[in-house]
Prior knowledge:
By secondary structure, this protein is an alpha/beta fold. It has helices spanning about 20-30, 50-60, 75-90, 105-110, 130-140, 175-195, and strands spanning about 10-15, 40-45, 65, 95, 115-120, 140-150, 160-165, 200-205, 205-210.
Amino acid sequence: MSVVIKPMHRKRVAILISGRGSNMAALIAAAADPAFPAEIACVVSNRPDAAGLAHAQAAGIETCVIDHKAFGRDREAFERALAAELAARDIDIVCLAGFMRLFTPWFVSHWEGRMINIHPALLPAFKGLDTHERALAAGVKLHGATVHFVVPEMDSGPIIVQAAIPVHDEDTPATLAARVLAAEHCIYPQALRWLAEGRLAVVDGRCKIAGAKRSAEKLTSPSS
Ligand code: GRF
């Protein structure tokens, strides 16, 4: 008797970057496992000089540059060009990974529930830029990172997963950033896995994870 095993439909993911792309690299590494429920279909940068582009190409991922400067102040024109590239590649999920552009409500609403972002702080604390400097200045004892759904308000969508790390007396913004970044590389692939598996539901602004144990599921770094 022969058994036909149908290939699992892996969600098609576009990662949007503007720079270094280390979170992008963590997502690519996780999705290199054929059992991962999502595949990285393309990496899009709004900056032609984003360092992450070379890493994506070396990993065999299609890349695409849509230079926002070519559109002047017309934010929607940039987004229409981006939307066309995503549609052409049949993208299911968008992951923002250090993507330094704000979206209009039009673009956000189109991707509602299918676009996620990683932020280097424990939201709702320290929205915006320079989070590590501000965390040190505030004297917080715990800092960290958050993966959340994207909504029109910056850094404000339903929280999917967070990683908390202790702040040390001797920390500088650079040392704190390095430990937070390592945590980011663990939680972003985990959040994408849950989303691609269809396990996330937002109820009254709170994100529930179907089948999640009461204690946190073990998160492993792709590099560990
Ligand atoms: C990360 O700290 C991420 O949380 C924030 O921007 C940074 C991007 O770093 N949104 P990288 O490009 O992923 O290395």
